[in-house]
Amino acid sequence: MRALRISLIVLGVLAVLAVIADRVAVRFAQSEVASQARTSLGLTSEPSVTINGFPFLTQALGRDLNHVTLGLDDYQAEVDGQALTISELSADLRDVEIAGDFSGATAERAEGDGLISYEEMTRAYGELLAVSDSGFGVEFGYTGDGRLLLTLQATAFGQTVDVGEVPGELVLEDEAVRLQVNEDDIPDVGGADVQSMIREQLDTGRTITGLPDGVDLDTVEPTEDGVRITISGANVSLG
After folding, report:
1. How far apart are CA 98 and CA 4, in angstroms?
2. Is the pLDDT at 175 greater than 90, yes or no?
3. Is the pLDDT of residue 18 over 70?
4. 5 or 143: which leads in pLDDT
5. 3-state SS string over the chain?
């Protein structure tokens, strides 16, 4: 009986040691994945990485991680070549295959979301318009009912006109994002030239690029905090 108790104690200690070794290994692996992701995605700091599932060592030996969660405070994308910061970007990576020499990994599937603040949209869109010297200006906000609130300005013949506030929506067409506004909602100010400029700029699609390879933009939705985006992709490389 005494021998049985000792055996059970030994088994218990071994089990605890195995769990500790597994957790130490997973923390090391998370650090390595974060470092590789920082390099491959061109980040200024390492993202948060969580390798889910237990035991980790069994997954590592098979070089196939079931579920990895990646989180980034800020991610630099582009809209028509102009820098655009996406905040709170998180991604769920599924069936992550580790390279033979452990130098990188590829996720079979990925999906996630992020946020573009209205301040960031106003800044990026304003710089785009400044480059084109369009004479058009817009400040982004939220109406409270799932739509954008656009505060419009237009400059023609050296005169700046405050057009007013207009509700609008974001439409995703292929890879382009376009503002959609009901023409009846646009205040009839500034004359025909100003009205034509406003409609031309609102109808211009803008393309968001610079997302990780293999990842596409799925949806864009105005919320109280900013425009929430969702992304998904396949065969996404982590270095």
Report:
1. 42
2. no
3. no
4. 143
5. CHHHHHHHHHHHHHHHHHHHHHHHHHHHHHHHHHHHHHHHHCCCCCCEEEEECCCHHHHHHCCEEEEEEEEEEEEEEEECCEEEEEEEEEEEEEEEEECCCCCCEEEEEEEEEEEECHHHHHHHHHHHHHHHCCCEEEEEEECCCCCEEEEEEEEECCEEEEEEEEEEEEEEECCEEEEECCHHHCCCCCHHHHHHHHHHHHCCCEEEECCCCCEEEEEEEECCCCEEEEEEEEEEECC
Cα distance between residue 141 and residue 133, in whole Å: 23
How far, in Å, CA of 94 to CA of 111, rounded?
Answer: 9
Q: Which two tokens stand for residue 120?
A: 């960031």
Residue type, 101: D
Please give the Cα distance from 125 to 17 (Å, whole number): 56
Question: Is 160's pLDDT higher than 90?
Answer: no
* Spatial separation of the C-alpha atoms in residues 48 and 51, rounded to whole Å: 10
Rounded distance, CA 2 to CA 184, Å? Answer: 89
How many alpha carbons lie under 13 Å from residue 82 in its C-beta half-sphere?
A: 17
